[in-house]
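Notes continue from the previous slide.

Worked example: a multi-chain complex. Inputs as given:
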Amino acid sequence: MKKFYSLLLYLFPKPYRDEYGDELQAVFDLSLEDAAQAGKFEVVKVVVSELAALPAAIIHEHLRKPGHGWVTQASILEKSSYMKTIPKIEWEELGSWKATLASLLPLWLFFFAFANISPGLEIFEILALIAFYLIIPVCIVSLWKGWMTFDLLLYSFFPITTIFLFDEMDWSYRTFILLSCTLILTVGIVGYQRSLNKDSVTLAWLTLLLTAIAAWIFASHAAQNYWQMGNGTPWWILFFSF
Amino acid sequence: MSPDPVSYLPLTEPTFYILLSLAPGRKHGYAIMKDVRGLSRERVNLSTSTLYTAVGRLLDQELIERLDDGGQDPGPGLPRKSYALTDLGRRVLEAEMVRLQGMVKEARLRLREDGA
């Protein structure tokens, strides 16, 4: 159980884990040892209460801007209590191009997994399968390394909300629409990271919000045109016709 | 200028007990957890992660401070960091006590009036 708890601690943001991980583990171990003396029922009680409280704490720490409440990646760029102890280079990397590319990876893996590029060619099917299986480990590694934050991870999965629009649609249209949405969302992620580099939190959030709305409007408009105009209509007409 | 302790009030029950637990002196995370349980007569049972979420917030608010054990071994399995109340934390705790006393006093008066 102690080992399992130490694995769960990897879900906390890296700086938080570096600072408090050992303490959390030590306190958990002591709680468990004390509970073991009181009997099996007490152990189960402790484990259940610890596991139940963990998700909220993990989400809280991913979204917390220490000292000022709820902002996200901006907090990483700012100096605050536990972050002061982190080597400076790590914080300079956040908001950098390296972090931007890492943040984009889940979004583009999602595109390759679901776009169904040229289903006649076996190589694309294999690539789609690889992309599908890479999404989760890549997300975990990116969060663990501190290259992306929880809010950006949720944003990367935004295309899921558009997928039901493509039901029974010809694959070529589906690919183009999903590609366009992915490009719009890419602009959002790049804009978000660049804005944070300039310490402009409002602009960063506004970029994410606007690009998510734009992607949704674009996808639903194109899908609606497809069902009105039918198969065979050139894709650019579906995209831009009103 | 030092912040007004009243601006931190009212405290939540777990926060109140965490600060109260640290009033006599510095403690490790697990000692705080056990003390809070005892002080609240088993009503407030903090899990490890909830305790550290609260501790993180109190550190940010500068109501408590995190101290190193200075190379001393705190004992087998015990964390090497401990927490202590800051001057501001103590003043906030006192202000909360005054607030609670005021509430109890008003309640007593009103209940006595009703009974009379």
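Summary box: Residues 93-240 of chain A form one domain. Chain A touches chain B through 28 residues (CB under 8 Å).
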